[in-house]
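cron nightly-structures :: item 1 of 1
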Amino acid sequence: MKLKTAGVAFFLGGITLISAQTKSGDTISHDKLIDEVIVTGSRNKNRTVVNSPVPVDVIDIKDVSKNTGQVDLNQLLQFSAPSFNSNKQSGSDGSDAVDPATLRGLGPDQTLVLLNGKRYHQSSLVNLFGTKGRGNSGTDMNTIPIAAIKRIEVLRDGASAQYGSDAIAGVINVILNDRNKGFEGDVFYGANLFKSPGNNDVISDKSIDGNTFDFSGNYGTKIGSKGGFGNFTVEYIDKQYAFRNANPDKYDAPRKRFGDAASKNFYFFGNIEIPVADGLTFYTHPGFSYRNTKAYAWTRSADSDGNIPEIYPDGFNPIENTKINDFTFDNGLKFKVSDWDVDFFNAFGDNNFRYQIDNTLNATLGTKSKTSFDAGGHALLQNTTGFSAVKKFRVLEGLNIAFGSEFRYEKFNIYKGEEGSYAMYDVNGNVVTENTDPSLYVTNPISGEIRPGGSQGFPGYSQEVNKSRNNLAGYVDTELDVTKNWMISAAGRFENYSDFGSTLNGKFSTRYVITPQFALRGSVSTGFRAPSLVQKYYSLQFTNFIAQQLVTIQLASNDSDLAKAVGISPLKQETSLNGSAGFTFNSSKFTATVDGYYVKVKDRIVLTGYFGQDDDAIGSILAANHIDQAQFFTNAIDTETRGVDVILTYRENIGAGNLVATLAGNYNNMDITAVHTSGKLVGKEEVYLSPRERAFILSSAPRTKFNLNLNYAVKKFNANLQMVRFDKVTYLGYEGPDDFQNYDARITTDLSFGYHFTPKFNLTLGGKNIFNQYPTLQTAQVSAGNTESGGIFDPVQMGFAGRQVFARVNFKF
């Protein structure tokens, strides 16, 4: 049955609700909608969202996107899912181009992302400066265009025993469009209507900014006469800057260009299936995305040591011009062998970053300096080859057995930048080394301080890296319906990595139906996350000046001689213990789901603080290696996370229309239970992981997050109101334990109205954050430049762009 959309899909902890109508305006039965078969969390092809033993949320992306002003997948999920959080960044180097995302407050790299059920490659970026998820390298879901997605299935439960590494917090499975007929286009335009709050503490260069244009087209066609199809998507997004600066008449903010970066994105994705013989189907999922992000770094004033007044008389704002090329190419064959459904596949992915630093200079080159540098970049390639086999047996009420194997190859590269992007030069134009006479250092005649080397705003990479590894995995996944009301499931997985060894994980889950409306469910599992190649081999050396002294800072790779010299152990896997328990209630009008969870993670990988030559344990080692300060990736902490997801939905016919009301909430609390130092650094826990860094980890998600959504559809008209409450978040500044930075709870309100002029033409007008809410202004800290971002507030969950209005046109032919 063809649908004319008149609503939105919501998270229901294992149940999908979609308010939709047929062409005649008849509302489709809720019971039919929740019977959709899921492919995540269960390899039983008869398992639906309503009878899953663990919470699997299904999101109809097309319906959600029509009612919101979001064009990025991360931000769309951020304002739809209570336990999903993704922060826009500013002044965080490569992270300005990739929004770090978390599920249940765990690390960005502790959620596994699948594309049509196959492992999707990670980003080559590791989050470092001024950002959440520091030391983590996650998956960039914004490389997948929204227009190419049919739905998203979110498994909110540990699933390493089923899917392997990274699935500690859960699994997000992106299902591509498989429509085989016609063209559907979408045109979006949005802009921030800026108005300063209250005391004019926030200013913008323009009254309207952040202009966003998005065009997407999706075309489906049949291939052959045996059910083959091809579905193709192109999308183009153009976003302009949105600056939220401190008022210079009141505060001396260290950044004059704080806010959303500008970007241009282009996507092409395909989803193709072709029956090549009876019982044999070939499929392929090619995808390419290109993103060019321009983000401003911290301001260099006219008299700063990093500026040459002859080049920039008024100072300058360096621009990090980041280009991301992302490519995916999955291919496979599906066939039957003795009633086993077999899938043999190869999933390839490559993520490539290149940094060009514009509007900058190398101050040690003086007036001869270029104003643009190639700073190098990094890339990550992942290729997974495997097979899976599934069969259902007549045992009791039904036994489903699945097994399979995977072989994955990974390669990580760092590309060296041009010399001027990272080098420091002396007065004679020679590169400064440890043997350079200090009297030859280039100084600022105004301050007398030594000028810093490298491209201002982002130092180029000075070393090439080319590292690889592989792993082999095998798994068994079973489900047994003991009775019509009771099912149990068990899974086990073994993996062996070439760089750190083997791991074995298991999972048990169950579901019991008490009444036709009420059921209990729960699970317990062990999990793991392999250290990423980026964490193992990323290194960066740069210079800074402290007290008129040249300071060489080394972010030492885990396999470096320096890391070995100070006793940093080779990275090993993070391990987890997951438990969940909950219930579902489903009646004709009211649905409730409650799921509590517990996640204990041991040996989480973090980036340490800085150790200097004055350290009594390793200072002499650093001096012998000509390093003034060093930091390392290491398995340093244990955490425990407890939380509850509650989702309540009520449906009612009001007048000629239908109202769907959903209240979804998440409570999440994390504790750091232990900090593990190396043998030579025992007693240095406060440097290993400072209270400030601990505060950043613990604030990865607000303690509570609530989403109230009201959708009313009547004939050709629908209205959607969404209110999201983000709880208070607390950071620590640089001035010690009393330097609290509190971001009070905020409520954002989104409102949209849609009208179907014809079955093939729809217009939606709306606004997000219509009451122009901003994070709490950190006025006391701004004069000292103590916010992590250098602006008047840090990037927090609600965002910092203010009000946006938008129009969206959807058409078909």
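cron nightly-structures :: done
Residues 691-698 form the longest helix (8 residues).
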